[in-house]
C-alpha cells in the first residue's frame, strides 16, 4: 500500500517535472528574458494578498518549502504557468490569473527579492521577459 502511494506521488512529481521541462524547451526557443526580478517587478501590497492566499491554499503542502533552487535560467512566466495549471494540487486551475500573479509575488518576496511600485504585469509576454534570480 505504501509502495503504491509513493509511486503515485512519484508520477505526479515526474509529470510536473516534465511540464517544467517542456516549458523550459519552449522558453529556450523564445528570446531570453531581458529584465531581472530584482528590478522591483511586483508590489508589496500584491505580495501581501498573495501571502494570504498562500496561507489558505498552499501551506498544507508547502509550508516549509522555499523556492528558488530550480530558478536559474527560468522566467517568471514558467513558475506562473505551472501554478496556474497544476496548483493547488488538490484543485488545479482554481486560481484566477490575478490570484496566481499575487501568489507569485508572494513567492518572490519570500525569496527576499525586493518589491517595486508596480504589480507583476498581466501580459504573458511580459512575464516571459522577467528573469528569475535570487538576490
Ligand atoms: C495537495 C498538496 C498541494 C497543494 C495544496 C499545493 N501544492 Fe504545489 N506541489 C505539490 C506537489 C506534490 C508538487 C510536486 C513537487 C514537490 O513536491 O515540490 C508541487 C509543486 C509545486 C511547484 C513546483 C515545484 C517546486 O517546488 O518548485 C510550485 C511552484 C508549487 N507547487 C506551488 C504551489 C502553490 C502556489 C500552491 C497554492 C496555490 C500549491 N502549490 C498548493 C503539492 C501541493
How would you describe this protein?
This protein has 135 residues and is mainly alpha-helical. It has one domain: Cytochrome Bc1 Complex, Chain D, domain 2, CATH 1.10.760. Helices cover 56% and strands 3% of the residues. The protein has 6 helices and 2 strands; from the N terminus they run αβαααααβ. A two-stranded parallel sheet has the order 1-2. Helix 1 packs across helix 4 and helix 4 packs across helix 5. The longest helix is centred in the N-terminal third of the chain and has 28 residues. It is globular. Heme C binds next to helix 1, helix 3 and helix 4.
Provide a concise account of the structure shown.
56% of the residues lie in helices and 3% in strands. With 135 residues, it is mostly helical. Strands 1-2 form a two-stranded parallel sheet.
**CATH class descriptor name:** Mainly Alpha
Percent helix = 55-70%
Radius of gyration, CA atoms, in whole angstroms? 15 Å
**Low-confidence runs (pLDDT<50, min 5 residues)?**
1-8
Amino acid at each position: 500500500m505504501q509502495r503504491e502511494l509513493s509511486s503515485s506521488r512519484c508520477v505526479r512529481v515526474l509529470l510536473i517535472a516534465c511540464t517544467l521541462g517542456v516549458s523550459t524547451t519552449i522558453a529556450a526557443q523564445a528570446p531570453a528574458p531581458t529584465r531581472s526580478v530584482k528590478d522591483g517587478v511586483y508590489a508589496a501590497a500584491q505580495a501581501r494578498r498573495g501571502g494570504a492566499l498562500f496561507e489558505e491554499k498552499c501551506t498544507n503542502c508547502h509550508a516549509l518549502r522555499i523556492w528558488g533552487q530550480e530558478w536559474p535560467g527560468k522566467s517568471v512566466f514558467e513558475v506562473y504557468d505551472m501554478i496556474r495549471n497544476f496548483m493547488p494540487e488538490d484543485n488545479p486551475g482554481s486560481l484566477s490569473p490575478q490570484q496566481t500573479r499575487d501568489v507569485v509575488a508572494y513567492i518572490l518576496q519570500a525569496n527576499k527579492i525586493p518589491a517595486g511600485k508596480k504589480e507583476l504585469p498581466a501580459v504573458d509576454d511580459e512575464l516571459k521577459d522577467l528573469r528569475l534570480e535570487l538576490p
